[in-house]
Amino acid sequence: MVLVLYGTEVSAPVRAVLLTLRALELDYEFQEVDLTAGDHLKPDYVSKNPQHTVPTLQDGGAYIWDSHAIMGYLVQKYAKDDALYPREPLQRAIVDQRLHFESGALSVRWKQLKHLLFEEKVTELPIEKLHETYALLELFLDGHEYMAGDQLTIADFSIVTSVSTAHLSIAPVDATKYPNLSAWLTRISSLSFYEQANSTGARRMAELVRAKLPKQFDKLWQKAFEDIKSGAGKM
Amino acid sequence: MGKLVLYGVEASPPVRACKLTLDALGLQYEYKLVNLLAGEQMNKEYLLKNPQHTVPMLEDDGKCIWDSHAIMAYLVRKYGKNDELYPKDYHKRAMVDQRLHFESGVLFQGCVRNIAFPVFKHNQTEVPRTKIDAIYEVYDFLESFLGIKQTYLCGNNLTIADYSMVSSVSSLLGLAAIEQQRYPKLSAWLDRMEKLPDYQSNNGNGAQMLIDMLSAKITKIV
Prior knowledge:
The structure holds 2 protein chains of 2 kinds.
Chain A: E1 3-7, H1 12-23, E2 28-32, H2 43-48, E3 56-59, E4 62-65, H3 67-78, H4 89-119, H5 128-140, H6 154-168, H7 179-189, H8 194-211, H9 218-230
Parallel strand pairs in A: 1-2
Antiparallel strand pairs in A: 1-3, 3-4
Chain B: E1 4-8, H1 13-24, E2 30-33, H2 44-49, E3 57-60, E4 63-66, H3 68-79, H4 90-121, E5 126-127, H5 129-145, H6 160-169, H7 184-194, H8 199-217, E6 220-221
Parallel strand pairs in B: 1-2, 5-6
Antiparallel strand pairs in B: 1-3, 3-4
């Protein structure tokens, strides 16, 4: 049974699935979907995923989409144990809340910012909303090493992909302002499979974002660019 | 079984999704009002339980859970007599999860909150047409998710995905009507949901409240 992942590595949700696949040590095929070329809007792709988003997972004859649904599916079906997505109802409820926070608050805000940058070409970016999200993530991490408690779960994979991209481009996570979040980012980026599953794609996306950045980010851009070039912080 | 307490307001779609679920599972619970417009969700006591300061929030024997989708899944898994409302089968579950995440992102955050927040929090009386267009885009997707002759969003059985989706969709009808000709499947699905037992008390009344609240404040689509 071959797993096929349709997507592109610049996409944060695709990278969340890549982190999960790597964590579970699953073999898979990667099918590139070029969003700029409209691959996702072609009839063949839409027939697999009527929402025409990435990622989409093919498992045998079944097509599953939405990164959070895919991650949950992969752990439940293939993991040796439930560590990444606990079965205990209360623990699972916490992971689920974090996943929905990602799809609701974090993801939507990130998409809105990208839309303003790439489609509307604004000169001012309202990043306060992203900082509000960082502040909440900081609270979620209070007294815990990971997003949903004391162990790594798919909530960490889901959240790290967009946070790392924002961190490398428009909203670096200031360690003095967000000590928990900053420490968590370092912790997740130290995972053995992080570099390949998330880092490369996050940097590519960050560069695309920074190329479009309005004047207000010049200083930030310089520093972030230097960080990328030097590979600082293993981001 | 411990005591279940649901915190919320009638007008809130995700609160109503939880009410529909609690009722479907035959669960008794206490309902505690959190007056959002008065900022009660920012009270120290509430923040300690839910740092995201949202509704709904469920307290089960002292343990607090929030986010409607997490709450609904929790209730079915813990108290459901069977897994019908949230199937254990991997593939079926993944489909329900996709619909739930579609609701949190594209529908609730993308449409409901995106319109309601500026209106209620910042007293904006004009709504950009793009925000109304976004509702129709959601309707287009839902129409495509509903297969031919499919009764509910994930097949022929009712799931928590239906409760989640209807709570928000029903709240937007004042801004974007669902014409039967344009959306035959979605229209039929909505009719079917409205005929569920106790739909009015669990969702219908609250949805109308939100429709009326929005209509009272919004003067123009620009």
